[in-house]
């Protein structure tokens, strides 16, 4: 039994090191200042939602955000993400929580990776969905924000820029039920945005 353990230990350590290296490679695609948005974003949401500046009239929208984010994080299946979606935004700031109507979105495969794009509405996002190294955790969203029919904007680091751009957008994505996905985006200390996705 001890001999088997000694044989298995190097294999387990190698697997752990491989997963850590893959996770480091995923983070390496994101500017250091943006990586902070991926660490404990729930704390940012809680702090924003607790601000006394949010009017009572926004209580319902705030409750929707809190209920959605309280759902268990379920693993995403890349193939199941492909296709057409409906997406609505809930934007939280220290001055209010603002729900928006449902708009069109799509997830497609490009160069072997998954690409998300919000297709309608005045405020849009597009970018890559990066899976976790172990297949079990939340996915990363790495992309850019654009307006109306303006051309889509890529993530500056992926585009080879020397510094971050104001249009850069990063966040997390996870499942909450079959054909239901949440994305928590750009938690910057005083605001955040939630995308709620469902099938048409």
Fill in the keyword field for this structure.
27% helix, 200 residues, globular, signal, 8 strands, alpha+beta, eight-stranded antiparallel beta barrel
Describe this structure in words.
The protein is of the alpha+beta class and 200 residues long. It has one domain. It has helices at 2-27, 32-35, 41-49, 59-69, 78-81, and strands at 83-93, 96-110, 113-118, 123-130, 139-147, 168-177, 180-185, 191-198. Strands 1-2-3-4-5-6-7-8 form an eight-stranded antiparallel β-barrel. The longest helix has 26 residues, at 2-27. It starts with a helix and ends with a strand. Residues 9-19 have low confidence and may be disordered.
* Global morphology: globular
| Secondary structure tally, helices | 5
What do the pLDDT scores average to? 91
The tally of structural domains comes to: 1
Strand order of the largest sheet: 1-2-3-4-5-6-7-8
Low-confidence residue ranges = 9-19
Number of strand elements: 8
- SS-derived structural category: alpha+beta
Helix content: 25-40%
Kindly estimate the percentage of residues that lie in beta strands according to DSSP: 35-45%
- For the termini, the CA-CA separation is 54 Å
What pattern of helices and strands is seen along the backbone?
HHHHHEEEEEEEE
Mind summarizing the main beta sheet? 8 strands, antiparallel, barrel
**Rg (C-alpha, Å):** 18 Å
Signal peptide: 1-21
Keywords: Signal
Topology:
Elements: H1 2-27, H2 32-35, H3 41-49, H4 59-69, H5 78-81, E1 83-93, E2 96-110, E3 113-118, E4 123-130, E5 139-147, E6 168-177, E7 180-185, E8 191-198
Antiparallel strand pairs: 1-2, 1-8, 2-3, 3-4, 4-5, 5-6, 6-7, 7-8
């Amino acid at each position: 039994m001890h001999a088997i353990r000694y044989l298995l230990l190097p294999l387990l350590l190698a697997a752990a090191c491989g997963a850590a290296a893959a996770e480091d490679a995923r983070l390496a695609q994101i500017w250091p200042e943006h990586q902070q948005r991926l660490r404990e974003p729930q704390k940012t949401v809680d702090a924003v939602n607790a601000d006394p500046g949010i009017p009572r009239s926004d209580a319902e929208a705030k409750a929707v955000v809190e209920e959605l984010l309280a759902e268990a994080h379920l693993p995403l299946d890349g193939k199941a993400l492909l296709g057409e979606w409906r997406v609505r935004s809930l934007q939280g700031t220290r001055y209010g929580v603002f729900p928006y109507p449902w708009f069109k979105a799509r997830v497609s495969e490009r160069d072997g990776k998954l690409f998300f794009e919000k297709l309608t509405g005045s405020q849009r996002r597009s970018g890559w969905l990066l899976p976790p190294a172990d297949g079990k955790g939340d996915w990363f969203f790495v992309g850019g924000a654009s307006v109306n029919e303006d051309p889509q904007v890529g993530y500056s680091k992926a585009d080879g820029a020397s510094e971050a751009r104001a249009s850069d957008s990063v966040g997390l994505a996870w499942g909450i039920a079959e054909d239901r996905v949440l994305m928590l985006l750009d938690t910057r200390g005083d605001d955040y945005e939630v995308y709620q996705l469902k099938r048409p």
